[in-house]
Every structure is written in C-alpha cells, then in structure tokens.
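INFO batch 0412 | record 1 of 1 | parsing
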Amino acid sequence: MRRFRRTLVAATLAATVVASTAGWASGTAQTPVTGPPPGTAQWRADRLLGRELPDPASASAAEIAAFFTALTPGQRHALADRHPLVVGNLDGAPIALRYEANARALGAEADGRRILAYDPRGRGQLAEVYGDLGHARHIAVIVPGSDIDAATFDRTAAMARALYEATNKATNGATGAAANEAANGRTAVVAWAGYTTPVGVGIDAATGDLAEAGAERLTRFTRGLAANRAPGAAKPALFCHSYGSVVCGLAAHEAGASDIVAFGSPGMRADSVADLGTDARVWAAKAPDDWISKIPNVEFAGLGHGNDPTAPEFGARHVPADDTDGHTGYFAPGTSSLRAFAAIARGETRWGETR
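INFO prediction complete | emitting tokens
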C-alpha cells in the first residue's frame, strides 16, 4: 500500500509538471504517420515489369532487397524514376537507389546530400547519411526527440555530423591500422528523423503513443539496414535522445542493434535493461544540469516512461557527461559524452564499465 501511494503521488506530480507552465512548453496533439510510403497505390498498380511489384505494406525488408537484386540496373532506375517516394522510403531497397529516388523527389533541395528517406506527409520526415553507408564497418543511427521534423531536421543533422567527425578521426592515441581505419571513414552515421515526434512537452511527450508508432518505423528501418549491410559489418548502434529513447526502448527487442545509447532520457518504458529484451549493450548518459532530471521517472496509467536509465538499478553502462551542458549539449566538441559516443560507434569496449 505504501509503495502504491508513492507511485500515485509521483504520477500525480508528473501530470502536474506536464500540465503546468513553469518553464515548460505546451504540447500540440500529433497524429503519427504510419503505413506504407506515399505513392504506394500507384506502385501497386504498376506493371512495368509485367508482374506485380512487392507490396510495401507487407513485404519484409529482406524480400525487398531480394526483389531489387534480381532486377537489371535499367529496371531499378526506371522504378526509381516512376515511383521516387516509394523507392526512396522503401526499407531494403539498395542504398544508392534510394539516394537517387529521394534526390528526384526533393529536386534542388537534395543538393548532393545522401537522403536515405523523405516522407512529406504530416510535418515531414527525413533520414540523411554521413559517410559511406554501403561499405561502412560500423553504423550509428541518431534517433531524436520532441520537435524534430522536416523543418527542424538540421538539429538532428548537426548531431550526426558531430558524431561522424568525432568517430572518423584518429583519437585516444590510435596509431597504425586503427588510425587508418578511423581516418578512412569506416563508420557511417544516419540522422534518422523517421517518426512523428511530440511537439512541445505536453501529453504526447508524456505518453507512449507516438513512441510506439515510431518504434515500428525504426525497427523496419534497421531491418532495411541489415538487408543492405556490407559483409562483415556490425549491427547498427542507436543513439537515442530524449523522447527518442522511449522509441528505442520500445524497439529494442526487435531493432537488431549492437548498442543502444539513451541520453537526456525521460525513461525507456522499462524497469531495467533486462526488460528491454535485447542483447545489445545498453548505455545511458545525463548531464548534471539537464532539465530532464525534473521529470518524475514513473509510469502509471499510461503516463510517464519509467525508470531513469542512468540510475544504478536500471543496469545500463555509464557514459560520462559531467562536462556536458544542458539537454542538447551531448555532441558538443570536446565533451566527454561525444568522445564516448564516438568510441561506442566504432565498436570499442573501453567504455564498458557499468555504473
């Protein structure tokens, strides 16, 4: 009974914090973008190849990859030309072909960028690649939190660029082959704003509905990466910021990740690492002055996201962040958090001590 009272009090506090105006932004309810890519109806009706094309709503990423492997280069390019929004968002399709399709869909806005996904529905969703995704030995995926969409994508892109630059240079005294591998860009980084994020800190940010929809999209995305992974390449490492860590927590058991890094997290909808149901290494970081610490770490009647991933009892590996500033400073040059993130992205184990 005493424990129930404590939980109820904490849940009431969480509701009060979210609903109050004490330094918090109000939230606007969002409807998640779900289902197959835009243009799917036209894709389904296309008989360019004399037969039905694989259904984006039901075909697995592995089946999509096998379908494109069996095509001639001319057939692939023709499909990208006729259905850029489908091919550009089709997890399992060849990486270079997705770049081509999205460049066609975006026109001058693509401007030579490696856009791996572009969905104009809702507030817009994007995924951009830094590095050679098709040949990288290691892949890192940035999963952002609230207020990220096509209009604000540069915030996530800046994180990805910072991680790419920190990862692909010789650090920590690396020499010889290790230095060469780092300098040659063997780690690719993806800025993945591929789900409908909450706007502000309101009910959407305090509940898991958008995260559940996002987890499905993230899982399909990582399966697409697996279908196109270079021989010998590692599974992707997920770097999950703020509400993005809720998405990663819900996707953990199916995402096929090597590492899951939660930073500035309100919780991962789990009591402990064991509850995530993953064999990935799980890491957590929180800056001393990150405002996320003011969020009560409870989950009650659908409100709140559970235990603090940086709490010792959660069981995540500790990422140093004592010199990180606020909620958005984890990728700032020279910080301990960025150095640790780069090491994790490269598959190193030096940060393997548990708190």
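INFO post-check: Strands lie at 115-119, 125-130, 138-143, 187-193, 237-241, 259-263, 281-285, 317-318.
INFO record closed
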